[in-house]
Amino acid sequence: MFQNRTQIKNKVGSNFSGNIVLPLVFIAVMLIGALISPLFFSVQNLRNIIIGSATFGILASGMTVILIAGEIDLSVGSQVALTSVVMATLAPRSLTLAIFVSVLVTVSIGIVNGVLLTKTKMPSFVLTLSTMGIVRSIALVIGDGQPVYGVPRSYASLANASVGGIPLVALALVVIYLLTWFFLKYTTLGRSIYSVGSNAEAARLTGINVNRIKVAAYAISGFMAGLAGLYYTSYVTLGLPDGAVDYETEAITAAIIGGASFFGGEGQVTNTLLGFLIVAIVKNILNLMGVSPFVQPVAIGLLIIVAVGVRTMRKS
Amino acid sequence: MREGKPILEMRQITKSFPGVRALKKVDLALRAGEVHCLVGENGAGKSTLIKIMTGAHSMSSGEMLVNGTPRELNSPQDGRKLGIRAIYQELDLLPTLSVAENIFMEDVPKTKLGLVDWSTMNRRAGELLGMFKVEISPHSLIKDLTVAEQQIVAIVKALSQDSKVLIMDEPSAVLTGSELERLFGIIEELRKQGVAIVYITHRLIEVFEIGDIVTVLRDGENIVTERIEAVTMEKLIQWMVGREMDEQFYKETVELGDVVLEAKNLSVEGLVKDVTFQLREGEILGLAGLVGAGRTELLKSLFGQYQVDSGSLTIFGEESRLKSPRDAIAKGLGFVPEDRKNEGAVLCRSIEENISLGVLAKRKFKFLVHFPTLFKTAVELATYVKIRCHSLTQEVVTLSGGNQQKTVLAKWLASESKILLLDEPTRGIDVGSKLEFYKFMAELVRNKKSIILVSSELPELMALSDRILVMSNSRIRKEFMADEATQEQILEHAIPQELRESTSAS
To answer: Which residues of B touch A211 (CB under 8 A)?
Structure first.
């Protein structure tokens, strides 16, 4: 093959930087945190970062799966709110039942999303924009628009629980990300999700049932939304039908800063983890600096533009 | 072996799509160790036929026998289980995944626990690629490879499995020179192993190089199936177009005018090196060379797509520094790119809109778009270039390759381009449409347009051009008057120095 040298150079260059930039940014953000406030590296602050952001951290792993499949799921924030309402309503009767029903509900929503998508062939952005509203509405109707009390105190304290000084939810995040990584890298279903997102027609021609894979991806997204909702309920100690607003955009933010592509087929959940941590830390730093919450989205917006802009500029 | 029982037999295959009958009672028999060439114009039903063969499409009526037993294929998996595989024209690869994963997409090596066994997969992929003597890393992503490399991966992928019937849909459309020879070597090997091969091509010369038997499809019907020994090129073309074709090429001699474009020591870092040439009014200037020689890159730098680092470009007597295609268009240049589907036409929009783009590019309107002008231009030009369509509101994606190409050309005529850069304009276009295209090129130069033509088909390039520049390794190596050059002479200069040395050493 006659390939000129600059092309090869570029290729190596971009791959190399793609792997190294994200960890570097992560380290840089940590250093900035340390420079800005002595409080940053305190145990309490690090706990706060994780405990405060874990909900969208869990959502981001599910969102990565959906983005790799070449789709998007805007309904996950609403699903978190619905879960908290279901939990608060059912938990007084039986906690096990409440957890079971919550996850069943979100997985079902995921499956409905997937089936509607594959049957109607409508764009997933439009479809999940609709289900986002519908699911939110269901949560509001069940909770009558009000916070729902009734989450058992023992369950509510889980969000702050630690094992050997490490927040329980941090361990849970590690486990969730490890399992998702393993699932995407080593299982047939995981690889099929990449294939479908990369080139659906080619995947179909090699015998992959594209529709089934997409439904599965949405079911996984629903499952993750359920888990995120379970944690969220414990964290806010209530059922909040109008809670978790904009969580889907935060999940998308983490995934795309981590390098997931909107065109499908690309993305690493390990990088999403870094993306999530970077976003969480930046927010924390802004809080420590006393930056107004009204201005904070500016910083996150710039972060996305820089992170994704650098990557796309390199490609062209 | 040659006269043995067919591995695969298709009887009276009919396929109807809504409103069209794509195939009418087609018979076809494939035997082990035989290369069966399938030729026909675009839309003759070749693709439909092979999709039925592999199970990707179902047939409306007819029957298919595999080793003498009637089989019904409902999906590509069914076909694969019987050892029937296809390498499609639109490469069925996954661009964001690795070479190894693409090769083993259908049969992923697994560990005892049923998990993907990456190390085995990468090792075996490396071995298979090694058999092809290509330097492609199993870890590379498909989207980072050249089209030719992708084609090789697609072939390796098909060969990684045990295939009884292997269908190749126009592999030569993207391979050239040594790559094609390598492919023919592989086909020879497969023939010895007793694989039945279906080889689809538009380059009829290949039928005689590689085929044992040829079937001609026309308008969904099997016109003839004949052993190669009993076929001549003239007959083949006649069967394909359904009438006698006394000519393959068409060229008019036009009196050349002034120099319209002049490049002096033009260089683009890593892509074009020290290129100097002149183009005159009414001239067709051919660019010959292997894939990667820098021909496309040269066209793209003339069109302002690549920034020129040094040297000068004079267009219509004015020294021009083109910062973007927009500047080039303003100077009267038009570019018909090789990648028609991505760069040439806006497939999902109508013919009319595509042509209108040319008018808009010329910036005839200051503020508001005057739709009657747009429509009038589109109708005139579509008639002029003879686009075959139901109506101009038809989406370009529904047109055949030849008509898509005409649409792209009409767009540049709409922008009043005087210098047309054509990059492999006849690739994937059938014989009949090609001739029509050649005649059209003749008409363009008669009307004082100038053309720079890139084509990997040397006979075509030699027949159409007035002058030929041979490129290799991003440089112009030699200039010929078209009527003075021979294929051998051109190839001699097209093959890079280091490659010539390495082949003579081995």
So the answer is: none
**What percentage of chain B carries pLDDT values higher than 90?**
30
What sign does the CA torsion over B190, B195, B196, B200 have?
Answer: negative
CA distance B174 to B404: 19
Nearest chain A residue (CA) to B118: A186
Each residue's pLDDT tens digit, A73-82: 999 999 999 9
Look at residue A145 and tell me whether its pLDDT is greater than 70.
Answer: yes
Per-residue pLDDT at B48: 86
Token pair listed for B399: 């047109």
Helices (H), B362-450: 371-384, 401-414, 431-446
CB contact under 8 A, B92 and A195: no
3-state secondary structure of B481: strand
Q: Is residue B71 packed enough to be buried (19+ CB in 10 Å), middle (13-18) or exposed (0-12)?
A: middle
Lowest mean pLDDT among A13-22, B133-142, B181-190: A13-22
**B459: closest CA among B488, B432, B436?**
B488
- Distance, in Å, from the CA atom of A245 to the CA atom of A240, rounded to the nearest integer, reads 10
Alpha helices, H only, B213-330: 233-241, 295-302, 325-330
Instruction: With CA atoms as reference, report the closest residue to B93 among A205, A266, A202.
Output: A202
Q: Do residues B420 and B450 lie in contact, with contact meaning Cβ atoms separated by under 8 Å?
A: yes
Q: How close, in Å, is residue A190 to chain B by CA atoms?
A: 10
% of residues, chain A, pLDDT over 70: 93
Specify the pTM: 0.72
CB B139 within 8 A of CB B191: no
pLDDT tier for residue B260 given thresholds of 50, 70 and 90 = very high
Q: Which amino acid is at A49?
A: I
Distance from CA of B31 to the nearest CA of A (A): 25
The answer, yes or no, to whether ipTM is higher than 0.90 is: no
Which residues, 6+ apart, have CB-to-CB distance to A163 below 8 Å?
A171
What are the extents of the domains in chain A?
Answer: 5-315
- Out of A2, A187, A201, whose CB is closest to B290? A2
DSSP state of A36: H
- Look at residue A316 in the predicted model and tell me its pLDDT: 65
Percent of chain B with pLDDT strictly greater than 70? 93
State which amino acid sits at residue B58.
S
Nearest CA in chain B to A5: B270
Provide the 8-state DSSP code for A316. -
Determine what percent of chain A falls in helix, strand and coil, rounding each to the nearest 5: 75, 0, 20
C-alpha distances out from residue A194 to A120, B79, B149, B207, B345, Å = 22, 24, 21, 38, 29
Work out whether strand B450-454 and strand B419-423 pair parallel, antiparallel, or are unpaired: parallel
What phi and psi, each to the nearest 5 degrees, are found at residue A296? -55, -40
Please answer whether residues B387 and B410 qualify as being in contact, where contact means their C-beta atoms are separated by less than 8 angstroms. Answer: yes
Which among B473, B90, B416 has a CA at the least distance from the CA of B289? B473
Confidence of residue A60 (pLDDT cuts 50, 70, 90): very high
What is A5-315's CATH topology?
Answer: ABC transporter involved in vitamin B12 uptake, BtuC (1.10.3470)
Res B499: pLDDT: 56
From CA B105, how far away is CA A265, in angstroms rounded?
Answer: 14
CA–CA gap between residue B469 and residue B17 (Å, rounded): 46
Q: Kindly tell me the burial class for residue A144, based on how many C-beta atoms sit within 10 Å of its own C-beta (0-12, 13-18, 19 or more).
A: exposed
Radius of gyration of chain B (CA): 24
Residue A13 has what pLDDT?
35
Query: Which tokens hold the place of B158?
Result: 């098909």
